């Protein structure tokens, strides 16, 4: 039966067997979008006609027997800070309203070559700064499990679109947890690859040493399919790395896998998150993994180090958006006044906050006290992980200390908002890989995610461990009740 709840693997099998055409598949997702998108606001831009036209071309290839493209006919969504030629890029900001890039991100080009169909650009926190997608200048996104709650951020639009059955896979960006945290809150899988595994060319920079294009899918196997198409050394990105291509092979068990679990992270979690992560650990042990409790001082150091480094890099990267070189412009008599007016009008409060924090941290007299000290902490964090991975294959922690919080609950409390990424930040600082997968629900029916962390370049092993866990559990099979969403909307309009 054709439903929007298929996996990429299932849909590919149906397409190649002739059970369904790509046009029928894409149309099913468009119908789902038409019905439920107005209540969720997961997209900032949709290209329905283009998606259907591309699907017709895919069907011609499928009918001719030329089906070497592994993602042929598969609809995906793309976060609106990743360039897709022919579509606007706003980064969720009024500063870039109306901007259409003249080039395309390498990751998008490679996914298109693999046959993927881009349905549209998904909503996000402005310039990827936030953990709830409430900072979008075009209005927030809502969690399909309960629209009174946030989907996480900053890639909340991509996570919510996937959970809602609007696409089969999606791209986001992860600077400090912006793929993994919304994946956890929306009940889907989200991978932050090893730094350099996917080219950053065409990704609008926030924190250049931290940013990584990430992937959303329903299963670890599906993420492996997306990663295989998107990864690779890119001459247009000096930070990209050569690595052995993904050759995903399922494991029969977790025997021989040594997993360290961060026992102290559970102390700062809600009861439901703690119980779900403990149950996930028990299941991994049942599957043959050796569990070793560990403590990492770096997890406590990550939050202050991250927000100093990320804000410093943001202040440099966003300096170009002054209304004269890039971005919308408010005219005035001098360059300085025009810049002030342009930024005041077109940048949101969270973006301004981080630019000011970063500029202060880099200023004369304060750089040594703050920025360089944060960089030394970063080196210690990377060293801590390197030492631990000398004796472990993976590390397990909660993805987020809590499940989704209510819309508006902490949007005006930046410290509490920053705390939402407390378990994910260290992964970006160390340049290693992290994966969030569903592992349960709280008493309100909101999803819970568990995070797997692996050393640089061992993304495939994380996906294999996650896949083995998913073969033995049902959490990734759960879907939000979209009928309840319709009833909620009817009640609001009455």
Tell me the radius of gyration.
21 Å
- Rounded average pLDDT: 94
Strand content: 5-15%
Largest sheet: spatial strand order: 1-3-2-4-6-5-10-11-9-7-8
The backbone outline, from C-alpha atoms, is globular
SS-based class: alpha/beta
Number of DSSP helical runs:
16
Structure description:
With 494 residues, this protein is α/β, with parallel strands linked by helices. 40% of the residues lie in helices and 12% in strands. The protein has 16 helices and 11 strands. The chain has helices spanning 8-17, 22-40, 48-64, 106-113, 156-163, 180-186, 220-230, 271-286, 298-317, 335-346, 349-362, 371-388, 414-419, 425-430, 459-472, 482-493; strands spanning 43-46, 75-79, 117-122, 169-173, 189-192, 213-217, 258-262, 290-294, 394-398, 433-441, 447-454. It has an 11-stranded mixed β-sheet, with helices on both faces.
Task: Give structural attributes.
eleven-stranded mixed β-sheet, alpha/beta, 494 residues, 12% strand
Task: Provide the fold topology.
Elements: H1 8-17, H2 22-40, E1 43-46, H3 48-64, E2 75-79, H4 106-113, E3 117-122, H5 156-163, E4 169-173, H6 180-186, E5 189-192, E6 213-217, H7 220-230, E7 258-262, H8 271-286, E8 290-294, H9 298-317, H10 335-346, H11 349-362, H12 371-388, E9 394-398, H13 414-419, H14 425-430, E10 433-441, E11 447-454, H15 459-472, H16 482-493
Parallel strand pairs: 2-3, 2-4, 7-8, 7-9
Antiparallel strand pairs: 1-3, 4-6, 5-6, 5-10, 9-11, 10-11
